[in-house]
Amino acid sequence: MTQEELDALMNGGIDLDELEDSTSEEDTIPTDVQTETAEAIADELASEDMSDSDIPAGYSDDTAHQWPLPATDENKMVHQLDDVTKESEEKASEIFDIIENISNDLMEKEEEAQKTIDTITANITLFKTLTTKFPDVEAFSTSLTQNEEALVAANDIIETMQNSGDSIMSVMDIMQYQDIHRQKIERVINVMRALSKYMNTLFEGKIDDDKRVSSAQHIAGDTHNDVASADDIEALLEQFGS
Questions:
Q1: N or C, which end of the chain has less CB nearby within 10 Å?
Q2: pTM for the whole thing?
Q3: Can you give the C-alpha Rg of the chain in angstroms?
Q4: Closest to 161 (Cα-Cα) out of 120, 95, 122, 117
């Protein structure tokens, strides 16, 4: 039924019995025919591309990212922020564990290197004594030189390990900012949730949605072609009658 027929019905220009008869005649169309017709219309609409009039002004492939995305789990803001804080905390914990293991290994190897230095130092003392007592024995002087070079290299290794340990401590200090960033994100989440609850309270009504009068499907001046069904007419008359 079109809006004109609905207006005529309300003004008394159409007999409701005649309307029911015409409606019953339409209902006599076989169900399979109605189904095939509906499927054909749906397929035709699905196959048609969006016309220029349906595209919002200013919309293009370059500006698509500016338009609101559907409210899915991938696009819900608080949902995404919760995932970020959870995952970042888990990854930060894993990083701390790895850094701690590296630091412990460096400290352990540094102690072993220090034992090696003590051994090399003792060898140097020994070969110095032997070289002094037996200056003609070239093996003693050669060994003395090799041990002195090994001592320098060992000291360089320990210095490098100590610098690496200091760098690791600096990394751990920097990683502390990750916890601060997590707290900032959580504060943003709390503000967003508070605003959401406030807006829900602000738009809250005294009447339950299921008790509200249904919205009109067609209003004079609308550009679409929605029509009122017989059930809509009966529901409308019942509302006027009550």
A1: C
A2: 0.49
A3: 42
A4: 117
- Whole-angstrom Cα distance, residue 113 to residue 124? 16
Choose among 222, 218, 214, 220: nearest CA to 238.
Answer: 214
The whole-number pLDDT of residue 182 equals 85
Do 127 and 186 contact (CB within 8 A), yes or no? no
Judge residue 116's burial from the number of C-beta atoms within 10 Å of its C-beta, 0-12 exposed, 13-18 middle, 19 or more buried.
middle
C-alpha–C-alpha distance, residues 36 and 41, integer Å: 9
CA distance 42 to 31: 16
Q: Dihedral, CA atoms, 219, 220, 224, 229, nearest 10 degrees? A: 50
Length of the chain, in residues: 242
How do the domains of the chain map onto residue ranges? 1-67, 70-209
Distance CA 32, CA 42 (A): 15
What does the block give as tokens for 31? 């169900």
Per-residue pLDDT tens for 193-237?
A: 899 889 888 888 887 777 776 666 666 666 655 555 667 667 766
**What's the rounded Cα separation, in Å, for the pair 157 and 145?**
19
219 phi and psi angles, rounded to 5 deg: -125, 145
Q: Which of 175, 230, 226 is nearest to 2 (CA)?
A: 226
**Per-residue pLDDT tens for 170-189?**
988 888 888 888 888 889 98
Q: Return d(Cα 78, Cα 82) in angstroms, integer.
A: 6
